[in-house]
Design a protein that fits this description.
Blueprint: H1 2-24, H2 35-69
Helix pairs in contact: 1-2
Length: about 70
């Protein structure tokens, strides 16, 4: 029961993080956005990327655990 709830929470968080990544990739770079914005945005992109990787690993582990338990 607890793993079902954890998997749902991780799935929702993973969806939110992926949508945040997609929202940040607009057309502003194509029109020559300033370099300062890019530098400050880079740390946020790195954080979103690593959180996506960690959440995807947790989602996979919880899925395997649920397969074994049930």
């Amino acid at each position: 029961m607890i793993f079902n709830l954890l998997e749902i929470i991780v799935a929702v968080l993973l969806i939110v993080v992926i949508l945040l990544q997609m929202q940040g990739s607009g057309l502003s770079g194509a029109f020559g956005g300033s370099g300062e914005f890019f530098r400050s945005k880079r740390s946020m992109e790195k954080l979103l990327m690593w959180s996506t990787v960690v959440l995807a690993i947790f989602f996979g582990l919880f899925s395997i655990i649920l397969l074994i338990v049930h």
